[in-house]
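lol ok so funny story. i was supposed to be doing the assay writeup but got distracted and ended up predicting the structure for this chain instead. priorities right. anyway since i did it might as well share w the group, maybe its usefull for someone
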Amino acid sequence: MKMYHLFSIAILLNLISCTHKQEQDHINVILIYADDMGYGDLACYGNPTIKTPFLDQMAVEGVKYSQFYVTSPVCSPSRSSLLSGSYPKRLDLHKHVIFPQYLYGINPDEELLPELFKAAGYNTACYGKWHLGHQTPFLPLQNGFDEYYGLPFSNDMSKSEQNKRGNMRYPHYLPLMEGNDTIELDPDQRYFTKNLTERCISFIELHSDEPFFIYLAHPMPHIPIYASDSFAGQSRRGLYGDVIEEIDWSTGQILQTLKENRILDNSFVFFSSDNGPWLPHKTRGGSAGPLRGGKGTTWEGGMREPCIIHWPESNKPESGVNQTVWSTLDILPTIVELCGLQSPKLKIDGQSRLSEFISGEAPENPPFYYYSSRGLLEGIRVNEWKFKHLPDTSFLFNLEEDISEQYNLIKQYPLLADSLNSLLLEFDHEISLEMRQHGTLDQ
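and the output, tada:
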């Protein structure tokens, strides 16, 4: 009899716990950011030989965005915008990536998304590639995260990886970090995706009844690419496909964990990539699909990315394909409004898009600016029009009609091109005057 009562009490407590999780008024946030994934690398974006069933299902149940942009075609500047809501030039992080020999990083005075979450009582974790500075003041624990496990920069920036290619560019081995400490040199890259996913799942389970923010930044498919034993040799696309399919599996595991803990309905899960595919490496790199160019360029293939979002049930927009033009700049302010966080005091460039995604009423988009891998402003998009300026020529494209940027219309619309060029120059001048200093070790 006593055993029966204990069993009944256990069931009752479990029901109370489940009900509590379902009735939580906070929203959990997970940002999943791949590295060098192209617009055409997922099945739901048209890839014919890479299987991505979990991301495909996420797109069906959530929203898939067809015109989502990052602010730079290379790693560090792009990542700075996702966490700050600002163009990289505003943060003085626009001049290419941060290499191991560099002694600067994100300014600790910047108000990054994890710090806004931390101030609101959230548990925060960063797993994977950081690449916003690898000296202690610039690392995740000093910028709002409770936990950090991962790589401080790209997975090719190691002596051993460069030696494989006959390149002695980097004198050090690749560090795997836990918090502020290096715990291993040149870890087995085959298990990066698996280990990061397990860390993420453990964090979710530990904090399932508390508010949390996770930034999961996969080091791949940036080369060198590796897949664990369970995925190696499984994709028709070869090793590159194996890597993408394991990242897809990872996303599925995270969504399943949220579901099992009854917190999927109050979770915002974002999936995208930092820039386009590394095209010069042919089969070792990805696909930009119908887009022109890839990583390192301001063509659409370098800066337009796959983007899928699972929205909380209480704020869920209509499922399907959203054709709104928006970018990583808008992630921070949108999440701030969604989660009721304190807005940053410093000026940012993004704006909350919450109301338009929920109501379906999209106002006129602000201009989007295309900064090059070296921090030069090369283009601007206003509505359907994209003006792009290179040293030897200029282009004008109607992206609604010409997604592949094949037809230069500058001779047909010279006044429009001049007007867009004026906006471009005006903005770059303004942000140059307002630019804040990146972090340095002598601050």
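The chain has two domains: 27-359, 368-440. The domain at 27-359 is CATH 3.40.720.10 (Alkaline Phosphatase, subunit A).
back to the writeup now i swear
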